[in-house]
Structures are given as structure tokens and as C-alpha cells.
Design goal:
A hairpin with a 2-residue loop joins strand 2 and strand 3. The termini are far apart. The chain is mainly α and 300 residues long. The strands form two sheets. A two-stranded antiparallel ribbon has the order 1-4. Helix 1 packs antiparallel against helix 14, helix 11 runs antiparallel to helix 14 and helix 13 packs antiparallel against helix 14.
Length: 300
């Protein structure tokens, strides 16, 4: 009986493991992609196909009725700046602009403040540094609902209630962003900042020219997390926003539903419209997101 070649046996096992891995990855990818596929195709289906008891995988007739209903039910000014109202557009467009503005401004402010706080906590030695970082870590486990009443009182006192800023400012102080960028800043050699100090560079110059470019992958990951977190924070938007013109796309679509019926086509059209910006942002920051995760997983 011929002996089994160990090299061929190892190659066979590696090939089987590779095929099994690809099969598992394809199944998981399908499970994640299918809901998005169902929403996008459903937004182009007729009402009969949407409520059909037999699933319609591909629309027999691609229609724009759902998008027309979404765009025609309400209208609002595109923007309001210093008391000046912009041109009148469908309310869904205004809601989408509100949501994009909220998410982008939250992302920029959070990344800037978290990067500066992470740099200070990682590279500066000052009294109370450990206590501050401990409070930040504890705040990560604190549900937002616990501080909801103080936030409401604070926004009302600042005359910001029922404005987009009432949703933006509570997101800016995101403890996880500070924690994430502190971990990245700790991986930067201290000799880099000491060399800048010897050359006479100011703290701001050291941060902008040396530290920030080196933690850019972490900033990219923080940007994606912040954008998604602010975009999906339905609860805070529901509490802070009441006027129709100030609603986000998710709140606006929810207000267009009847009490005794649900227009699933309208919902799918709104969800498909709302998914476009967040997909674009992920594609733009995907390189930094992947690099940020891999760098954060390796010490030294």
C-alpha cells in the first residue's frame, strides 16, 4: 500500500480549508447584502408586489411611484440661514440635507476634539490625568438615556432645542472617540514630540504637523464610527427635534406614515435614499477604516 505524501495531504487540507472559508464568507456577505438589495428593489416595486404573500425577488415592472410619493407629499425650504429661506424643495430633500449636515459636522467636530484630547491624555503629564481618563472610560458604559433630562434642560437653556445643533453637540463629546485616538497616540514614540519641542515648535504646531498625520488612520476610523453613530441616533433626534423643517430623514419618513396603515413602498424609498450618503462616506474612508482597525490590533 503506497504511503500518503504529507506535502500533498497538507495541500489538500489547505485547499479544502480555503474553499470552506470562501463559502462561509459568501454566505455571511449574502446575509448582510440581502436586506439592502430587498430595500432597493422594493422601492421600485408596485404596491401589489410589495404586499404579495409570495416574495417577488425582482420587480416585474420597475416604477418610480414610491419616490414620487416621497417627493410630493410635503415641501420645505432647502435651508434657512440668518432668517433667509432658500428655495422650496420636497421635504425629503430638506430632511436629507439636515441629516447630512448633522452627521458631517458631528464627525468633523468629534474627530478634532477627540484627536486633541487623545494627544493630551497620551503624551502630556498633568495632575488628574488618570482620573479624567477613568471618567471617560466610565462614560463609555453610561447609557445616553440616563443623561437625557440634563441634556434637554441644557439645550433649552442655550436656546438650541428643536435645532440641528441640539443633536450635534451631545455627540461631539463622544468618549469612545477620545479613547480610540488616545490609544493611537500612545503608539507614537515620545521622542517625536520631544524633538519638536527642542526645535522650538509650539504645542499646536507639534499636534498639527507631527501627531495628527501619524494618527490619521485612527481619525479615519473615528470619522466612520462618528458618522454612523450620529446618522443612526434615532432616539436623540426624536427627543430633540419637533418642527417638520428640522427633522432628519428617518424622523421625516416616520411622520409620513398613517395611523392605521403602512406604506412600505414609501418606507423603502426613504431608506434607499437615506443609505446613499452613508455608503459614500464608507467608501471614501474605507482605507483609513481598515488600516485603523489593523493598527489598533497590534501593540508596539
Amino acid at each position: 500500500m503506497a504511503a500518503t505524501n504529507p506535502i500533498q495531504s497538507n495541500k489538500r487540507r489547505a485547499r479544502i480549508a480555503s474553499v470552506a472559508s470562501w463559502v462561509i464568507i459568501c454566505i455571511i456577505a449574502f446575509l448582510f447584502i440581502f436586506p439592502l438589495y430587498w430595500i432597493i428593489t422594493g422601492s421600485f416595486k408596485t404596491k401589489k408586489e410589495i404586499i404579495s404573500s409570495t416574495p417577488v425577488w425582482i420587480p416585474s415592472q420597475w416604477v418610480l411611484t414610491n419616490y414620487e410619493n416621497l417627493m410630493s407629499k410635503r415641501s420645505a425650504p432647502l435651508f434657512e440661514l440668518l432668517g433667509i429661506a432658500g428655495p422650496t424643495v420636497p421635504a425629503a430633500i430638506r430632511w436629507l440635507v439636515n441629516t447630512v449636515f448633522m452627521a458631517v459636522v458631528s464627525m468633523l467636530l468629534t474627530c478634532l476634539t477627540a484627536a486633541m484630547a487623545g494627544y493630551a491624555l497620551a503624551k502630556k503629564r498633568f495632575f488628574g490625568r488618570g482620573l479624567i481618563f477613568t471618567l471617560i472610560v466610565c462614560a463609555m458604559a453610561l447609557p445616553k438615556q440616563v443623561i437625557l433630562i440634563p441634556l434637554l434642560r441644557e439645550m433649552s437653556a442655550l436656546k438650541l432645542y428643536d435645532t440641528i445643533w441640539a443633536v450635534i453637540f451631545p455627540i461631539v463629546g463622544w468618549p469612545f472617540g477620545v479613547f480610540l485616538l488616545k490609544q493611537f497616540a500612545e503608539g507614537i514614540p515620545t521622542e517625536m514630540t520631544e524633538a519638536c519641542r527642542i526645535d522650538g515648535a509650539s504645542e499646536w504646531r507639534t499636534f498639527t504637523d507631527v501627531m495628527f498625520p501619524m494618527i490619521k488612520p485612527g481619525v479615519g476610523a473615528c470619522a466612520i464610527f462618528t458618522f454612523i453613530n450620529s446618522w443612526n441616533d434615532y432616539f436623540m433626534q426624536l427627543i430633540m427635534l419637533t418642527s417638520s423643517k428640522n427633522l432628519t430623514i428617518s424622523l421625516g419618513i416616520a411622520t409620513m406614515q398613517g395611523e392605521n396603515s403602512t406604506d412600505f413602498g414609501l418606507l423603502m424609498a426613504g431608506c434607499a435614499l437615506a443609505s446613499v450618503p452613508i455608503i459614500i462616506v464608507f467608501l471614501i474612508f474605507q482605507k483609513y477604516f481598515t488600516k485603523g482597525i489593523t493598527m489598533g490590533a497590534v501593540k508596539g
